[in-house]
């Protein structure tokens, strides 16, 4: 029997869909690396819920995906304990629809989305894929998942549509190109 746990990383797991994904993975008994940026209470809550739902263990990390040094530390710490990651689920994204960010002008929202959802995700994913390609052999192929949006190819009216269709189309294009590269 293999005693090495299945290790899953979920970025953006301090709230929303990222939190739901992390809690679901916990029910499978995965060891979870949880990521958040500023929502420390949400990250703590996700960790507690994951442990009570059967996770093999939890490591919670804060990192700003707009900062390359922070991204590098997130990757280093995620691989440090076991030397491998089985699944990397990239859920993190800038929230420009709620809180004070909802008051930003269109261009400011676009910049926040671009710097986190595209620039940060691309830097992070390239580092993660390099590590996954060179990690110890596992009984299965490691995987990376980027979350898209079905409207990104068809469009949607309004500022939100213009913002999110553009950003998520960029995420999808990068994801396909990274998959072809590795």
Map the helices and strands:
Elements: E1 7-11, H1 16-27, E2 31-36, H2 40-52, E3 57-62, H3 68-80, E4 87-90, H4 106-133, E5 143-146, H5 158-181
Parallel strand pairs: 1-2, 1-4, 2-3, 4-5
Helix pairs in contact: 1-2, 3-4, 4-5
Tally of extended strands? 5
CA-atom Rg in angstroms: 16 Å
Portion in beta strands: 5-15%
Q: What best-fitting shape do the alpha-carbon axes yield?
A: globular
Considering DSSP H and I runs of 4 or more, what fraction of the residues is helical? 40-55%
Overall SS class: alpha/beta
Topology as a string of helices (H) and strands (E): EHEHEHEHEH
Query: Strands of the largest sheet, in order across it?
Result: 3-2-1-4-5
The CA-CA distance between the termini, in Å, is: 30 Å
Can you offer a commentary on this structure?
This protein is an alpha/beta fold and 182 residues long. Helices cover 49% and strands 14% of the residues. The protein contains five helices and five strands. The protein has helices at residues 16-27, 40-52, 68-80, 106-133, 158-181; strands at 7-11, 31-36, 57-62, 87-90, 143-146. It has a five-stranded parallel beta sheet with strand order 3-2-1-4-5, sandwiched between helices. Strand 1 (7-11), helix 1 and strand 2 form a beta-alpha-beta unit. The two termini are 30 Å apart. The mean pLDDT is 94.
What are its keywords?
182 residues; alpha/beta; five-stranded parallel beta sheet; 5 helices
Short description:
The model has no long low-confidence stretch (mean pLDDT 94).
